[in-house]
């Protein structure tokens, strides 16, 4: 299993201030299908704790969905983005269709 937004990536933009119960809820979030992904071990190792400024899925057909799901999980858990991550999201999203998203906040 892989976290859409890796645990290490979630730490600095907000998870460091969470309670242990909130961290556990994030790590085991089954309430949104985009939070946890079944992936091959090699893909998980390739991604590690990197954000979209540092890593995107190799399949171009997955780019927009990956980015949408990343933003949804970040929003769901009220996690911020750093300037490089924000710029990458804006640049990559410019090549995607506009999509309305619905987010249920986790906390």
Q: What would you say this structure looks like, in words?
A:
The protein contains 5 helices and 2 strands; from the N terminus they run βααβααα. With 107 residues, the chain is mainly alpha-helical. The longest helix has 14 residues, at 63-76. It is globular and about 40 Å long. It starts with a strand and ends in a 14-residue tail after the last helix. The model has no long low-confidence stretch (mean pLDDT 91).
Summarize the entry for a quick read.
The protein has helices at residues 7-11, 20-27, 41-47, 63-76, 83-93, and strands at 2-3, 36-37.
Strand order of the largest sheet: 1-2
Q: How many DSSP-defined strands?
A: 2
User: Kindly state the mean pLDDT as a whole number?
Assistant: 91
Task: Give the terminus-to-terminus CA distance.
Answer: 22 Å
Helix content percent band: 40-55%
**Strand-pairing-aware structural class:** mainly alpha
Principal-axes shape call: globular
Unreliable runs: none
Count of helical regions: 5
The percentage of residues in β strands lies in under 5%
| Computed CA radius of gyration, to the nearest angstrom | 13 Å
């Amino acid at each position: 299993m892989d976290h859409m937004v890796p645990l290490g990536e979630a730490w600095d933009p907000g998870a460091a201030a969470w309670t242990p119960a909130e961290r556990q809820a994030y790590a085991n979030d089954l309430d949104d299908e985009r939070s946890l992904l079944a992936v091959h071990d090699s893909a998980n190792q390739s991604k590690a704790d990197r954000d979209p400024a540092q890593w995107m899925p190799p399949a171009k057909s997955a780019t927009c969905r990956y980015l949408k799901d990343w933003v949804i999980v970040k929003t769901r858990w009220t996690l911020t983005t750093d300037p490089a991550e924000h710029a990458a999201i804006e640049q990559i999203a410019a090549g995607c269709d506009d999509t309305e998203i619905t987010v249920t906040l986790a906390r």
